[in-house]
Amino acid sequence: MKTFFITGTDTGVGKTYTTLALGVLLKAAGHDVGVFKPVQSGVGDAEFLKDRLGIIDGLREINPFWAPEPLSPHLAFRRAGIKVLPGKILAAYHKIAVRHQIMLVEGAGGLLVPITRGYAMADLARDLDAELIIVARLGLGTINHTLLTVHEARRRGVRVAGVIFCDASGTRPGIPERTNPQAVREFSGVAVLGTVPFLKKTDAASVARCCRGRIDMAPLLSVTRPDAGKLVAMDKKYVWHPFTQMQDWLADVPDEPLVIDRGEGSYLVDTRGRRYLDATSSLWVTVHGHRKRELDEALKCQADKIAHSTMLGLSNTPAVVLAKKLVDIAPKGLAKVFYSDNGSTAVEIALKMSYQYWQNTGQKKKTALVHLANSYHGDTLGSVSVGGIALFHQVYRKLIFKTIRLETPDCYRAPAGKKYPDYAFEAVDRFEALLKKKHGQIASLVLEPVVQGAAGMIMWPRGVLKRFEELCRRHDVFLIADEVATGFGRTGTMFACEHEDVHPDFLCVAKGITGGYLPLAATLTTQRIFDGFLFPYKDMKTFFHGHTYTGNPLACAVAIANIDLFRKERLLARLQPKIRFLEKRLARLGEHPCVGDIRQRGFMVGIELVAERRTKKPFPWQDRVGARVCEAARPYGVLLRPLGNVIVLMPPLSMSRDELDAMVTALEKAIGDVLGPEIQL
Ligand SMILES: *Cc1c(COP(=O)(O)O)cnc(C)c1O
Q1: Given Cys at both, which of 72, 112, 407, 510 links 521, Cβ 3.0 to 4.6 Å?
Q2: Is the CB of 510 under 6 A from ligand 1?
Q3: Which CATH number fits domain 572-675: 3.40.50.300, 1.10.3720.10, 3.90.1150.10, 2.30.130.30?
Q4: Coil, helix or strand for 380?
């Protein structure tokens, strides 16, 4: 099955004649051809093609949207009082596409012609997963128009199959007409497939006679992309997935695994064209939705300048601009930015810097790192050393270095005779006792402020973080805030530290920093720490650390655009009512007898499933209840990923109310399917 989208370099260049010629030649070669004219205003190309190509699909099927006035579609349909929805076009297309081997989709006008607000022909071509055929007029001026169309198609991720010229005038060719094809081939690098001659008669037999040998069909038919089934087989043969028992992955489940092909706002689209709400922001990274125009453009513009240069001994423009922006939005006191490329390294850098600071400044005994039980700071050995999740870390315990682990209370399951939130502060008291004895040996405390994400969305009561900060200050121990998950608006403020007016000595950021586009991380720190590394070179007190892709210009350019969008779209202000909406909407879910706890801070949600609500008895982990609920949500169009028996909801901050509602509805149904339909829907 192949789809070609036929667009023009302008209106009136001979698109319909070219579609006709292609249809006739493909049919003559024995292919079953279907045509689709998604939107039509004025003249009846759809009728013409249906008639000349002998298509049996109904006219309304071939052309779902028609308006009488020959105007740009966005205007013609508005004036005709017809609402054109891209989703409806796609549905109409898929209905007839299944009947044919090859689909010819004829656009209206050129590639950027708007169908509705924010949706142009180019977007449709991409969403149909079509290859583009550009029809160009012969004559002076065509080189520029054709190159612009090729350029824009590539920019928007539409594959160009080739250019076809169309002789719409039948007049004697001059120099431009004779040299156009060669020039376009040379300057665009795209295949020029031939020229449709001037057609005096348009019946199939005459067109076939006229066009035979004039258009090179081979490049159109030879390109093959692996189909959905083949991709699954190749994945299973060649790929090893993270945090995945590959034995389960390789199991022969029909339709599995899901392969994502593209994204769109809050949705992910798989290779079979199915759409899913991205309820965990592609593992907690997506901020403004997928394919956000401003981020796409920032990336593409930077790619036109340079993709990478090193930060070792050099600097680059986006990295410098971004550093200032990060310092501007970060909690006060953070003055310097050290880049890396993932959350684990952002934390390791903070650990090493905090340790080396004391070495550099002569307090050689301050070497211990303190971390909290149930913490997660990444998967490299250094970050595993300060991690507390046994399931992930147990097997490596002989490889990792010694740290001080601070026991922390379970905020959901209060010990006998204790009351929440008071007992949560016992962790702080333990820290204070530790500091009184050992502060002279402690370099830093590392923690995830407000929400311990990977532990199962454990949320600290208000005040705990502030007390940790005060104790660190009093005993001159550095506070490392790992905001890899909570940063960039996740909890409702730009950084979680802001909830309690906390000013850490180190701020580690990664996941949301590029809006979910590219791997980038930063460790921000204070002037004091920075100054602790300023010595003559021979003293060997340099911070000897740096990754090859540190400060990558592409990633930094997108991160700049990401931060700008927060201001431009007043994102955090507009997020607040959506946070309240989500909270209200989730309350109903809490009535299910297996929903033990619903924890929410902003757009970070953990829903803990339990065997019995009263006793809070957990499901045995072997039952994989969390995973099964997430699997059950797929047929309802939502992609989830659990943490044990905690269902995580981490929607992109851009997710609309309707989408939030649909996400929770799907989760309710999935829980009902797996654990019994106890909720009244
Ligand atoms: C995800 C995460 C990390 C690790 O980030 P990677 O980019 O996966 O290395 C570290 N800390 C926290 C709090 C995280 O959520």
Answers
A1: 510
A2: yes
A3: 3.90.1150.10
A4: coil
